[in-house]
């Protein structure tokens, strides 16, 4: 004999009053009521049947089946059938299917006995999910950029925790920060930002698997301003939403500055303090790392509690970029414990400057003499260059003439240039002698 295994939740036509909503500060889409009485909801259902009462506007049912078996087929009270293949074209129902179960939402279902046909698990019972609510821990009214928050939200079904083990992989909780569009804050007009997404899977910061309690941590790495936190639980068939009071996200309250070493042998000094209007300086402890320009990494840890700014000496390894990454733990002025990621701080040590020659002031007379001396030196240098040029030119001409005469002598041994010059000189000399004899 096979039995139906599943859970169902339904929406009535009536809705909670505004007073009831304001009292719980929990907003959700559907009002969930049980199908049938307590006895019917806890017994095994024969022949995979369940009954829908008159006046129900929407129900959702999950049927668990053998791994890998095909989806079930739902049979209405009038004998007509619902198939997963037709769900995309029929607005009256929505179907979500995995290897082990079918999750089906029925809008305005036909009253009367329904039946599920398929390889459903034997010896299982109907689980009716009624009055599903989401309750999330409130976020503080004042938070800080870089702050890490631990958050807890949980589901309840008529005051008890529902068993969501079989379908936990399709349930997630997200936290969105929605800008209030207050023009006095930097986040004006930024819309919404998703800051976290949790699953009830027992991994990470989630404390227990499938217990209906979503636990996690997230870091507020968004722009400062005024935000409205919204918690949203999503499944394939329904959502639950809780809107918290607006919060103000302030800049990171931890402040860092530095002082460069005066000499090569001295150390650079890092100073860390807090905005004491927000965070107590005496409660501040630090942990982090320092990266030097040469690639070395040093650990930073300060656990001493006092009212003085924290001084951190840094080795002077020369020019380059020094980078500091810190996590801070402190107490706000309101007594709230804070975990903060401080924005990375860096500073640059420049190379030593090049010393230029220093000009010495001189007396005008001395300066004039120096100018004259420089001018005289320039003239002498010019004359020397001219003399060298003339001498070199004369030597060049003489060399060319000598080579020409030598070549001519070899070519014309009886009438070379030297002999012609000698004969020419003798001719001129004899002519001059004749011209000097007086006529008789």
Give unreliable regions as ranges: 1-44, 125-130
User: Which second-level CATH architecture of the largest domain applies?
Assistant: Sandwich
Structural class: alpha+beta
By CATH, the topology of the largest domain is: Immunoglobulin-like
Overall number of structural domains: 3
Query: Which descriptor suits the 3D outline?
Result: elongated
The CATH first-level class of the largest domain comes to: Mainly Beta
Biggest sheet, in brief?
A: 7 strands, mixed
Strand content: 35-45%
Q: How many distinct helices?
A: 4
Mean pLDDT across the residues is 77
Model description:
This protein is of the alpha+beta class and 440 residues long. The chain folds into 3 domains: 6-130, Immunoglobulin-like (Sandwich); 136-250, Sandwich (Immunoglobulin-like); 254-349, Immunoglobulins (Immunoglobulin-like, Sandwich). Helices cover 18% and strands 37% of the residues. The chain is built from 4 helices and 27 strands. It has helices at 18-24, 38-42, 364-411, 417-436; strands at residues 6-11, 27-28, 32-33, 49-52, 58-64, 73-75, 81-82, 93-97, 101-107, 112-117, 126-128, 132-136, 142-144, 148-157, 172-179, 192-198, 213-219, 225-234, 239-243, 247-250, 254-259, 268-274, 285-291, 297-302, 310-314, 320-331, 337-349. The strands form 6 sheets. Strands 2, 13, 15, 16, 18, 19 and 20 form a 7-stranded mixed beta sheet that branches. The chain crosses the membrane at residues 385-407. Keywords: Membrane, Transmembrane, Transmembrane helix. This is TIGR03503 family protein.
């Amino acid at each position: 004999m096979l039995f139906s295994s599943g859970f169902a939740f339904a929406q009535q036509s009536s809705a909670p009053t505004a007073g009831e909503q304001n009292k719980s500060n929990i907003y959700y889409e559907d009002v969930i009521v049980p199908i049938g009485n307590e006895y019917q909801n806890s017994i095994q259902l024969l022949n995979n049947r369940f009954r829908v009462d008159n006046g129900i506007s929407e129900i959702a049912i999950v049927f668990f089946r053998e791994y890998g078996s095909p989806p079930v087929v739902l049979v209405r009270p009038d004998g007509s059938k619902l198939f997963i293949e037709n769900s995309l074209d029929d607005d009256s129902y929505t179907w979500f299917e995995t290897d082990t179960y079918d999750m089906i939402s029925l809008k305005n279902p036909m009253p009367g006995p329904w039946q599920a046909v398929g390889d459903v698990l034997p010896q299982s019972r109907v689980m009716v999910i009624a009055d599903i609510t989401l309750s999330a821990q409130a976020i503080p009214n004042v938070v800080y950029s870089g702050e890490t928050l631990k958050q807890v939200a949980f589901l309840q079904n008529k005051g008890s925790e529902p068993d969501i083990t079989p379908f936990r992989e399709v349930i997630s909780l997200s936290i969105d920060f929605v800008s209030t569009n207050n023009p006095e804050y930097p986040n004006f007009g930024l819309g919404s930002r998703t800051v976290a997404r949790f699953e009830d899977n027992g991994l990470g910061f989630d404390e227990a698997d499938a217990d209906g309690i979503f636990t996690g941590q997230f870091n507020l790495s968004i722009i400062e301003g005024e935000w409205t936190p919204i918690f949203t639980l999503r499944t394939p068939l329904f959502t639950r939403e809780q809107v918290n009071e607006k919060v103000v996200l302030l800049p990171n309250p931890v402040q860092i500055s530095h002082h460069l070493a005066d000499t090569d042998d001295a150390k650079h000094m890092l100073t860390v303090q807090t905005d004491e209007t927000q965070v107590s300086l005496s409660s501040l402890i630090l942990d982090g790392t320092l990266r030097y320009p040469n690639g070395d990494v040093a650990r930073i840890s300060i656990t001493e509690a006092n009212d003085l700014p924290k001084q951190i000496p840094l080795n002077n390894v020369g020019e380059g970029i020094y980078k500091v990454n810190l996590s801070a733990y402190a107490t706000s002025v309101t007594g709230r414990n804070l975990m903060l990621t401080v924005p990375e701080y860096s500073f640059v040590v420049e190379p030593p400057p090049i010393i230029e020659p220093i000009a010495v002031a001189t007396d005008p007379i001395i300066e004039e003499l120096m100018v004259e001396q420089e001018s005289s030196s320039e003239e002498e240098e010019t004359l020397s260059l001219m003399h060298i040029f003339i001498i070199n030119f004369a030597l060049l001409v003489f060399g060319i003439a000598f080579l020409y005469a030598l070549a001519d002598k070899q070519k014309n041994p009886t009438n070379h240039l030297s002999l012609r010059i000698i004969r020419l000189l003798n001719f001129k000399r004899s002519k001059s002698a004749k011209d000097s004899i007086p006529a008789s």
